[in-house]
Amino acid sequence: MKQKILKYDVVYEEQEVGGYTVTVPALPGCISEGDTFEEAKTNISEAITAYLESMVRHGEKIPSRDTNILVEQIKVQRPIV
């Protein structure tokens, strides 16, 4: 059986204490982390696979990539304290 390749948008958030936290907006609760960007990327790939395998085992429909997500940085002035 041929496996279908799925693509999901992921969001990497650099942590102040070091490392990265990664979330997948199309898969609520699918989150991972890593000490380096590459480690975080590997870990979220494994987390997505496990998440989808769990959905299949429970007879749930696998969501398609969420294309309605836009991530952008916006600059604002810091308030004076």
Helix run count: 1
Work out the number of β strands. Answer: 3
Specify the CATH architecture.
Answer: 2-Layer Sandwich
What percent of residues are in strands?
5-15%
Straight-line N-to-C gap: 62 Å
Number of domains: 1
| Approximate helicity band | 25-40%
Look up the CATH topology.
Double Stranded RNA Binding Domain
Order of helices and strands: EEEH
Molecular structure report:
26% of the residues lie in helices and 15% in strands. With 81 residues, it is an alpha+beta fold. It has a single domain (1-81), classed as Double Stranded RNA Binding Domain.
Features of the shown structure:
1 helix, Double Stranded RNA Binding Domain, 81 residues, globular, 3-stranded antiparallel β-sheet, 26% helix, 3 strands, alpha+beta
